[in-house]
């Protein structure tokens, strides 16, 4: 297909140029960070295998004051080196590559020169934001002998090249090394110890036995006569807590989801503002786990009060559902919306007649899915005073040693939780099947 | 004949990709005309049509509809203008999960009491005319089906019924039959012709097949790279003109 005349792409505003620089910047920071991670890993392993074994068992190897700048500069240089050789994982992740003229490979000497030039170039980079010079000319990213380009943009012009095996490329090896290091560190840091797992199995035997012979003494009887309630009571509390949080959360999230959808709000600057505020709010609220919110509400409305748990779940549900919902709104077919707008309908009528019918099924599915999550969360939210069945679980757990059948009671609570969660999961899965 | 639309030096540049899609176009459309837009893919037909009801904002130029400047209309005025310009689409653009009847009734949204429309309540006259229009496009028995249960041809007829509900002065059709087989295409085109001749609705349609353009158009406007390369009667397009519009290698395909 032929393109009509292109309008001239003369000088861009600094903002446009800044945006174009972003992938390069992000790629560099990623490389720097990965080298920093390697430095940390080396330090940790040195401690583990050399310092505390051979030097000072109770001590810890730490960097001297001058060590920090050395590490920072060294990792910076390494990142710069991989950047200059256009081999870094950052560059390949952001799809950038250095090309010579006619997409030829850039020779080694030229890359080395680039590494040296980058030291000055990075400092001068801000100047590249102004004027008509091609971006990156100051860091030798763009001149006669080579250019840093987005691979996706020039895909069609590239000469065919044989794909290389991962273990023959720098970045494949680097990534493999990074993965191995991460695994090694993770193993050590989380103190994974398979030996302990085997040794200790016998010692916890009687607890297992008790757990698997649950005693439903307090199924309907109050646990402490006249004071605390029965298992069934707490279970109902849990279910209604989750139910209340899901339903009210969904009702609040429904209108908010339109405010957080780009295709509905992106018609003017004011709309964009609301959209951005909403999205930030959803993300911020969502990132606070409901169990953390429950800590706050338990202090506010009283420890052990199911209202605290319900409030925490409610807030988290709003944020989580509003985000999921608004993504659905953004994914609707825009055609019908245009068609309804051309009849002279108002903006909200377009939403009511064009958007809502399209999103209803996925809204229901997401709400049910949220209900599953809320039930699970409601069973343990008592850990921080949020009320519900967990109250009993932690009560009996604390009575171990004082009460002979404490573990049997814990077993009963666990069985009750498993049965209820499983049953409700099954129902919601069946309902979702029906909707889908 | 009185003039319905005057387009004056209309230009549209898409910011993304910096494409000059419509380049300084001027023409007028008289009331009662059946104007057909032709041109290669990417020549700017859709862009031109969608500028007229401002589904996309023109970059420069003026569009005057029945004496009112569309480009300067406020949001409210634009809604009132859009009630008078219906549009049908290549992909039909029905709300698939809604019933056919709801889709047809949504053509009245610009007119009805907004509060009542919020609870899907339409006046009795509108309901009656919805059934009358479904009858007119030959699918009265489909009213309560979901829109996506219909065939492509039936869906486009629903689109036409929705447009009829607006009682428009102008009907814009962007490749209304490109997704349909030749026989169905003709029957859909005949509904447009009927609207044009019996209801006096002015029609602007973009079409891919020159044979359809010749058969239904009273006047033809050909676009190439966003500019008008031909304007005149269907009969005036000869082999030379055809090559000019579609390029040297093109050959005419008949649709019967
Ligand atoms: N949203 C958009 N953003 C950027 N460029 C666009 C956009 N829509 C269309 N274009 C470009 O504008 C030009 C005209 O497109 P338009 O859709 O108006 O052509 P058309 O004649 O309707 O083509 P077709 O017959 O394929 O529908 C094309 O080059 C197209 O790539
Ligand atoms: Mg088109």
Describe the structure.
The complex is a heterodimer of chains A (436) and B (256). The longest helix of chain A has 42 residues, at 14-55. Mean pLDDT of chain A is 86; it is low at 1-10. Chain A has helices at 14-55, 67-84, 89-93, 108-124, 151-154, 170-189, 194-199, 205-211, 231-259, 262-265, 269-287, 290-301, 306-330, 334-341, 347-380, 390-398, 406-435, and strands at 96-99, 142-143, 146-150. In chain A, helix 1 crosses helix 6 (170-189), helix 9 runs parallel beside helix 13 (306-330) and helix 15 packs antiparallel against helix 17 (406-435). Chain A has 2 domains: 8-178, no CATH class; 231-435, Orthogonal Bundle (MetI-like fold), CATH 1.10.3720. Chain A is flat, with a radius of gyration of 30 Å. Chain A contains 17 helices and 3 strands. Chain A has a 3-stranded antiparallel beta sheet. Chain A is an all-alpha fold and 436 residues long. With 256 residues, chain B is α/β, with parallel strands linked by helices. Chain B folds into 2 domains: 1-84 and 170-256, Rossmann fold (3-Layer(aba) Sandwich), CATH 3.40.50; 94-167, no CATH class. Chain B is 34% helix and 25% strand. Chain B has 9 helices and 10 strands. In chain B, the strands form 2 sheets. In chain B, strands 6-7-8-3-9-10 form a 6-stranded mixed beta sheet, with helices on both faces. Chain B has a 4-stranded antiparallel beta sheet with strand order 2-1-4-5, covered by helices on one side. In chain B, a hairpin with a 2-residue loop joins strand 4 (60-65) and strand 5. In chain B, helix 6 runs parallel beside helix 7. Classes of the chains: A mainly alpha (436), B alpha/beta (256). The interface between A and B is large, with 28 and 45 residues. Bound molecules: adenosine-5'-triphosphate and magnesium ion. Adenosine-5'-triphosphate is lined by residues 14, 16-17, 19, 21, 39, 41-47 of chain B.
